[in-house]
Every structure is written in structure tokens, then in C-alpha cells.
């Protein structure tokens, strides 16, 4: 590298300084008939010779990775050499296989990753205190349901749940494995106000994520979830969209480096009175930004899953859209923004009723799609279960049966075979809460 610099500097000097000019400067190092170098270039030449020996003795890879930008004259420059970096991933094949396993026909994800505070809200709705024992009892009810693996391929857990066991001492992770359900883990640390935005939020949790992900992998988790949100009534601002996309991309890269399939979830909240066309516009903008930064961070698309919102009107819009309309707009957005190499689209329910979420999913599976189109529901799978259980041990079996009913309904919807005939009134009740926080 010094040799190259020396040659250019030497040529530049003799090009600009003509012999008469050199004579006027009376450089003492030049003798008649012999062209010598000025002292500063003589030092460069010596450095170049010394450095060249050292560099040849070491790896030449370092040299190839450097950019060289030497000034020639007043305006021209040599072109900068750009080196394409490919992130080596020791888990790549495992990630791809895990994603395919979760995105398997007729199955979807059970999301029970509510924080302890949110779980407390659920328990309070049936008159239970938010204690670890009550949270453990409810999670045990869900995760030990016989036959759950027929309809559920993955379960997203909260950190507390990952380390919990049944009252008999069996780890919840092992209960899932016995049903051929892949354990997952929520890794974000929640939403906080985004400074400089229009009352918007951003998601925290990147600090320490690599070490936490490695530990979750040791505990049996094989995929991760990171949820951030975008609010249409608040704009959304360019800052909020970029922050959401960049955070998701960094999380995805870190997760893959530690063996976890990242679920990418930029939830577009239902809040607002906007029409479905506005939701489509915002969704396209958000997902374009997300995939731009996923590519910038060298994320393997075959080893991720998406958890998008369905494209619907705002919850307060005067006109409700039919399942067919929602399917049309949602699939239009996905086909414009999501590459076919992504194995699975696992929709969130976002406050829809149990029946609405299932009907909309069913409508999207009436024709072939480039990806596995399925569900990753929390409230839309648990609402009836919770009401059936009521915190009573004698109701556990009935509550588990109601979970299987909802899981089977969404399994059929994933296959495009669901019918709403026979749905209960509870399943038809909407669960949207304005300004809802997790």
C-alpha cells in the first residue's frame, strides 16, 4: 500500500514540478544527469520498501479489504474499491429448517408471550390476582392441552414461562416438544416514547440481546419475536418508520447469529378512523423500509417469519370491510413487498374478534400464495379459553377443549376450509381496545 502511494506521489511531483522549477528551488539532492527524490519522498520510498516486506509476509486479505482514495490533481480521484461482506452464519441450515417446520400446512403459532403486567389484566378479567402461581396455572392449562400439536406448530413464550415447569416438575419447553411444537421467546423489552416524533413509540431491547439470545437457545427456544408498532393517526412519521425498521433488522440479524428464527413484527395499530386504502399505503411504506434494512443487515430471508397486521380500515371507520376485501388488500400489499423466499406469513389478530380473525385468514387462503399464510394469535385463541376456565381447577378440561376448538378453526382457515357455522356469541365479540398496551 505504501509502495502504491509512493509511486503516485513521485509521479505527481515530477509532473507538477518542471526541471527549471526544480533548478530554481536548488534541491541539494539532485545532481547533473541523475534524478533523485526530494527528502520527503525519499522517506516515503524507504517506508514503502519496509512495509511491503511486512505486508507480503502477512495475509494479503487485509490489503484487499482497504479502500484507496488518492487525490490526483485538484478534482479527480481514483475509484473507491467496495468489498461486499457476506455474514457467515453457523446456524443457517438450522434456521431454514426451523422456519419451514413452523410454517407447516394446517398449523400456526400460539402467542402466549404477554408480559406479567398484561397477563395480570387477563387474570383480573376473571377475578384472579396477578401472582406467579396464577400465571403458571394458566400457562400450564394452555401448554399441556392434549393434541395441541395437531394445529399449533410454535408457541411464543414470555421469559418467565421459558424457565417455568408444571406442578409435576416438567419444563414447559419439554411439554411443547412432546407435541412437536417449537418453543419461541419474546425478546424485546417493550415500547417507550420516541423523542423527536409525533407522540410515537420505539422498541427497546437491543442492548444485551446477543447474550440473552444465546441463553434462550440453551434453554430450548428456537425462534424469537420482536414487536414494534406504527400508528396511522400519528402520521406515521418518517422517523418512527425508520426506527421501527432498523430495530427489527438489527434484532433479526442478532437472533440469526444465535440460532433463533426471528419473527419480524411491525404492528400497524387498528386505532383510527382511516379507510382501508390508507392502511394499504402505510403498510407498503413500512414493509418496504423493513426489507431494505433486513437486506442491509444481511439477514437470511429463508430463515425468518413475518407477523404482519392484516390490511383493514381503522377500527373507528364508518364502514367495515368484508373478509374478501381485507384478503384482497392484504395480499396485494404482501405481493408488492414480501419476497417469495420468506417461508411464512403468520398474521396477528390485533383486537379482531376470534371469528373475524379466522374468517379473514380463511379468505386469504382461497387461492395459492407464494408463502405459507397462517396465524400467530394471542387473544383470538385465548379469549374463550379464559372465560371457560375462570381460574377453577374443575374447568381446566373444558377450557382446553375450547382451545382446541379455536386452534382447529384456524387450522382449517389456513387450509382455506373454515366455515363460521356454529360459532358462539363469545367468538363473535370484538376485542379492540383503543390505545391498548401490552
TrEMBL record:
It comes from the Eukaryota. Keywords: Chloroplast, Glycolysis, Lyase, Plastid, Schiff base. One of its GO terms (molecular function) is fructose-bisphosphate aldolase activity. Its EC number is 4.1.2.13. It is an enzyme of class 4 (lyase). Belongs to the class I fructose-bisphosphate aldolase family. Pfam families: Glycolytic. CDD domains: FBP_aldolase_I_a. The lineage of its organism: Eukaryota, Viridiplantae, Streptophyta, Embryophyta, Tracheophyta. One of its GO terms (cellular component) is chloroplast. This is Fructose-bisphosphate aldolase. Its main location: plastid. Coiled coil: none annotated. Pathway: Carbohydrate degradation; glycolysis; D-glyceraldehyde 3-phosphate and glycerone phosphate from D-glucose: step 4/4. It is found in: Plastid, Chloroplast.
Amino acid at each position: 500500500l505504501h509502495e502504491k502511494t509512493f509511486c503516485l506521489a513521485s509521479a505527481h511531483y515530477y509532473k507538477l514540478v518542471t526541471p527549471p522549477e526544480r533548478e530554481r528551488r536548488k534541491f541539494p539532492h539532485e545532481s547533473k544527469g541523475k534524478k533523485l527524490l526530494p527528502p520527503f519522498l525519499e522517506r516515503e520510498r524507504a517506508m514503502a520498501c519496509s512495509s511491503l516486506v511486512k505486508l507480503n509476509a502477512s495475509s494479503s486479505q487485509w490489503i484487499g479489504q482497504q479502500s484507496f482514495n488518492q487525490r490526483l490533481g485538484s478534482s479527480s480521484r481514483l475509484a473507491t474499491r467496495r468489498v461486499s461482506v457476506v455474514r457467515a452464519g453457523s446456524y443457517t441450515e438450522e434456521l431454514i429448517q426451523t422456519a419451514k417446520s413452523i410454517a407447516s400446512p394446517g398449523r400456526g403459532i400460539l402467542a402466549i408471550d404477554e408480559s406479567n403486567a398484561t397477563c395480570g389484566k387477563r387474570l383480573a378479567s376473571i377475578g384472579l390476582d396477578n401472582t406467579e402461581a396464577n400465571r403458571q396455572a394458566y400457562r400450564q392449562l394452555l401448554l399441556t392441552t392434549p393434541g395441541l400439536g395437531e394445529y399449533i406448530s410454535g408457541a411464543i413464550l414470555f421469559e418467565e414461562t421459558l424457565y417455568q415447569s408444571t406442578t409435576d416438575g416438567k419444563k414447559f419447553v419439554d411439554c411443547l416438544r412432546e407435541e412437536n411444537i417449537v418453543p419461541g421467546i419474546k425478546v424485546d423489552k417493550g415500547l417507550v416514547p420516541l423523542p423527536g416524533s409525533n407522540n410515537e413509540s420505539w422498541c427497546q431491547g437491543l442492548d444485551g440481546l446477543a447474550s440473552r439470545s444465546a441463553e434462550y437457545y440453551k434453554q430450548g427456544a428456537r425462534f424469537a419475536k420482536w414487536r414494534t408498532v406504527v400508528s396511522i393517526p400519528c402520521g406515521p412519521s418518517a422517523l418512527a418508520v425508520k426506527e421501527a425498521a432498523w430495530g427489527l433488522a438489527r434484532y433479526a440479524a442478532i437472533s440469526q447469529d444465535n440460532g433463533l428464527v426471528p419473527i419480524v413484527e411491525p404492528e400497524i395499530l387498528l386505532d383510527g378512523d382511516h379507510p382501508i386504502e390508507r392502511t394499504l399505503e402505510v403498510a407498503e411504506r413500512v414493509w418496504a423500509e423493513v426489507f431494505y434494512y433486513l437486506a442491509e443487515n444481511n439477514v437470511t430471508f429463508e430463515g425468518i417469519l413475518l407477523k404482519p397486521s392484516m390490511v383493514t380500515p381503522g377500527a373507528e371507520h364508518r364502514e367495515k370491510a368484508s373478509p374478501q376485501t381485507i384478503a384482497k388488500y392484504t395480499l396485494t400489499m404482501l405481493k408488492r413487498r414480501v419476497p417469495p423466499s420468506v417461508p411464512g406469513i403468520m398474521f396477528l389478530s390485533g383486537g379482531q374478534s376470534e371469528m373475524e380473525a379466522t374468517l379473514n385468514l380463511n379468505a386469504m387462503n382461497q387461492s395459492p400464495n407464494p408463502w405459507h399464510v397462517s396465524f400467530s394469535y394471542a387473544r383470538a385463541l385465548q379469549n374463550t379459553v379464559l372465560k371457560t376456565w375462570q381460574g377453577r381447577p374443575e374447568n381446566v378440561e373444558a377450557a382446553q377443549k375450547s382451545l382446541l376448538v379455536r386452534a382447529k378453526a384456524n387450522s382449517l382457515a389456513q387450509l382455506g376450509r373454515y366455515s363460521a357455522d356454529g360459532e358462539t356469541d363469545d367468538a363473535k365479540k370484538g376485542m379492540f381496545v383503543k390505545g391498548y398496551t401490552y
